[in-house]
Amino acid sequence: MIEIVEIVEDTIQGLTRPALCHGEDGNKYIVKGREAQNIGLKKEYICAHLGQKFGLPIPEFTLATFPNELLEFDTELIRRFGNGPCFASKYYPHLQEFDRSSYSQKNAQFFKDLFVFDYWIKNDDRNFVPENGGNPNLIVDSKREKIFVIDHNLAFDNDFELESFKHSHAGCKYWFDDQIALFNREAYEQKMSYALQGLEAFVDTMPEEWCEDIPGCFQTISDRLSLYDTEPFWRSIQ
After folding, report:
1. Phi and psi at residue 138, in whole multiples of 5°?
2. Is residue 6 predicted with pLDDT exceeding 90?
């Protein structure tokens, strides 16, 4: 856990209203607080951990707290970032929003992996159609050679729409255009099995404040994630 020493930019665009901040370790972070709600912060924390172990390029993350003296004269900031730890994702300079020019065949495997991962965690918040755009919650370097995966506060969606996901997810083109009959299911199952190892112990490191109003949440999430080794799970995206 780090302590925030400076709010560089009060508000960054987005429904969860994160802020760009300096941490006591000298790094900059994109910090999400109460606007994401406790359940959203919990999902960010769990999915960032799962995604990294799955093999996706997800920025380093940690918990962050704001000292009282940084917030005390601004009631809006107190409401957004006070009363407990927040979720902080490491900020990388010179990155920009994903757009159609970021699509490349050399990234085909990345998009396939991303499609499977978001399907696994039931995240329908990475929509992008090259002709119409969208917000895939991806950021890229200036040379379009490195893509980072961000934003998972809407994962484990109870209203997940499979058909919509299959047609609008940023990775659907690569998943369905290639010969998916030849995809290596065993390799993906190994990724998922590895990602789940130690998950309960990791969840125990979450702040108690995030869990008070969502009893039983971990068991529900765990039950959903365990479906990866069933036939219906894979049949739905073939």
Report:
1. -130, 150
2. yes
Q: Measured in whole angstroms, how far is the alpha carbon of residue 20 from the centre of its chain?
A: 17
Same domain assignment for residues 222 and 104: yes
Read off the CATH number of the domain in which 44 is found.
Answer: 3.30.200.120
Does residue 215 register a pLDDT over 90?
no
Query: Tokens 């755009």 label which residue?
Result: 133
Q: Which positions ≥6 away from 203 have C-beta within 8 Å?
A: 46, 218
Query: In Å, how far from its chain's centre is CA 166?
Result: 19
- pLDDT per position as a tens digit, 129-164: 766 667 899 999 877 778 999 999 999 999 999 999
Pick the last residue of a domain from 95, 130, 156: 95
Whether 73 and 110 map to the same domain: the answer is no
pTM of the full structure: 0.93
Best CA proximity match to 83, nearest among 45, 48, 35, 17: 35
